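[audit] Reproducing an earlier prediction to check determinism. Same input, same settings, fresh worker. If the tokens differ from the archived copy the diff job will pick it up downstream; this log only records the rerun itself.
[audit] input (954 residues):
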Amino acid sequence: MPLTDLCPPQHQSLFAQRWNTWSAAVGMEAAAQVESLLADRAKAMSVARGFVGSDFFVQQCTRQPDLLPALLAEGDCGLVAPALDELESEEQLERALRRLRNRVNAEVIWRDFAGQWDIPAACARLTGLAEVCIQAALDWHWQSLVARHGQPRNREGVAQPMIVLGMGKLGARELNLSSDIDLIFAYPEPGQSDGQSPLENQAFFQRLGQRLIKSLDATTADGFVFRVDMRLRPYGDSGPLVSHYAALEDYYQTQGREWERYAMIKARPVAMSGEGAAEAAEELMELLRPFTYRRYIDFSVIEALREMKTLIQRQVRARGMTDNIKLGRGGIREVEFIAQAFQLIRGGREPDLRVRNILKVLPLLEAGGHLPEGCAAQLREAYLLLRRVEHGLQAEKDQQTQTLPAEPARREQLAFALGYADWTALALELAEARAVIEREFDEVIAPPEESGEINPSEQWQMLWAGCARAEERDTWLEQLHEGGFQPASKALEILAELHGDRIVAALPASGRQRLDQTMPLLLAAASEVSEPLLALARVMPLLRSILRRSAYLVLIIENPPVLAQLLRLCSASPWIAEQLARHPILLDEMLDQRRLLQPSTAKDIADDLRQHMLRVDPEDLEAQMEALRHFKQGQSLRTAAQEITGALPLMKVSDSLTWLAEAILQQSLALAWQQVTEKHGAPANTSAEEMRFAIVAYGKLGGLELGHGSDLDIVFVHDAEAQQYTDGERPIDNLSFYTRLAQRLIHILQTRTLSGPLYEVDTRLRPSGNSGLLVTSLAAFEKYQRESAWTWEHQALVRTRPVAGSERLGAAFEALRTDLLCSQRDEQKLRDEVVEMRNKMRAQLDKSNDREFDLKHGRGGIVDIEFMVQYAALAWAHSAPSIVRYTDNIRILESLTEAGLMPAHQAEHLIDAYKAYRSEGHRLALQQLPGVVSGDHFEAERKTVEKTWQQILG
């Protein structure tokens, strides 16, 4: 009988077309060989089903002429890993993996359609394929990295292996034809590799992970191996790609969520490389066990599972998933939910339930009395049918789909491939199976009894739902008025505008549902702050910016303290509100309220930044620049929150912002050094630790008085031989090297990425200003200061200090600064020049008038105090060097008192006035207002400053 006649009439044309395509590709001899094997009707029918049911199968048979004969002749073609020692390049590795994957997938399709393998056997082969491919890619890249950077070791010298955890279907050995593979990468302990080009372990394993992913996930001419999903790792996409065990343990103990416990049920090591890997893998699983399985019967998880169930049902309705056999009602995910719900609840007390494979869990649940008698067998059969249909759907185009086809012709193809008489027969079995699953799913987590109590937020829910209805306007105005929103009409206008916005109308159902949950909570929380309307208005831009990223709405819904703090901070500062609206990722900073309001030391900030940067690919400059900006924004937000809540006094606010700038300068300089040295090599006798280059801070940074949004006044110095050359393949003279280093640093700081610039940088205070060299030798700096500098440049020197780069050169600069400031000067000439410069500045910059006082430049303001301090330092340091030990105005004033050069009461009055002005300036900066106040403010302080000015400089 011709093969075509084995197909129903409606499939004969499709089969003939695909058969002819294959025959033409493999040649008449190969085609005749296959036909000779098809005398067996069962084999012939298998070919017919394979060619009708899977275009992917036909393509693989066409590309590999030996494939179909092998399938017909053998019961199992086997699974052989690529011989790594025969592969000469990464490209050959990737080609070998992809060809192996395509051949195995084709065999699985064939055996399934032929009825030779059941679903457990097919899944086992696909899982084995994933394990072989992951291990082969891991071993290849491990060998490559170890050859270049050495073996990663902990601080005691013990070798550190890489462990790859398989999650989901891979972990449970249930992988299907087109599954993603969910992975988590881990290694035991920090340290560094022991080669000639060592890497920190974090960087080593991150590179290893990135290369492993590329070898599996990238699409080439041969296709891909597996799509790799890393989102189940701690912190998801925003977390480090690889974590050491202590970091994993800390995350799961302090921040792990119920859905992560749900996912961890199926976790298992699927690949590993390095000495001691097997023992390390066992240690990792033991570490994770207490998080997944609690020591008691964990009924607390029921509510979380109930929410997951509700979410499943809402997604089905919202997305019209009735034909989705995985996500729809009575689908594969509901069977998984039934099993894993009991595992989470009872697995802590019943170790037998701690198995990953669902077909093994179901009979255990029935034996333990958790499922009715006979239920396990029914669920098993229903599940196997759905998984087989899923395979049939994915076999057609090698695509990840679980949706039943809408086209009648495609439905009949699927039914024929799976061995059914027609679609009606398959659809009937599917309906019966899904009904079984749906019934048991609804029984597992019964909905809670409806509460008769009125939810406290019900009125706010009703207001949000009806705020756009004109006929209920008076009711809503009264409620808003009683909630403290003044004027209520403005609040209602804001709400109605958002409610009717096109962006809200365009939200998917899940996003709209989360917004509808958020708004009543937001209104209730806003009614508790001092200015509800102000808080509501300021939080609106943030709310609009996260509408399409509804995970942030979930963060707000699930964390009432975050919402309350958010509204307090936005109410207090439009600057904070604006930062959050521009960068919603900063909301993550508010999750840990203790950390948000806990002041950090300079060491804390520097250490946090180092840890933050370890998560970033060291070879990806753009990612590094974004990471620096994210860190700065997060730390700035914390500092502002601490200032607003009173957790941090004014002086400590400036300290915190200054320490942040110093840490970022040091990290940015390290990045700039790495980039310039990679291109040009380094000057003689230098290293990343001893660059013979230093950054000197002037102004607010030099005086430890940075505010929110301050620029950085910096000058660059070096002490290398300017005419010597670097040691790289493209050498340049040392002066050019340090100039490029400074330019690269400024680029890193000032470039406007998606997150904006890090800092605006001003280098005009260098010798000769903009007309001078960008980088100056220390000797040239000294010569300029002694022979050419203006008095105002010596004044600026009072507030200078090294902040990054070579510690040795920084110490030399500090010694030079002290020597310059302690030079004896003509006091009358100095006084005249200081007063003249002050008068010029006031004429150009003072914004004061009859009604307003300029805090900085007004008479009796900040600059007057600074000029008096600078004059005192220059005039008297020759006899009392201790007065220039510090660079900040307050400690210099205190030093003047200690040296007997200024009465204590006079210094105290100046310090009090200076603090008052700066505190108000900070408050205005957070309000995004200019530093100008009403003319009747600070009258006493101004009089005191003016009186002291007359005594010292009058």
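[audit] rerun output stored. Observation attached for the diff report: Confidence is low (pLDDT under 50) at residues 446-456.
[audit] end
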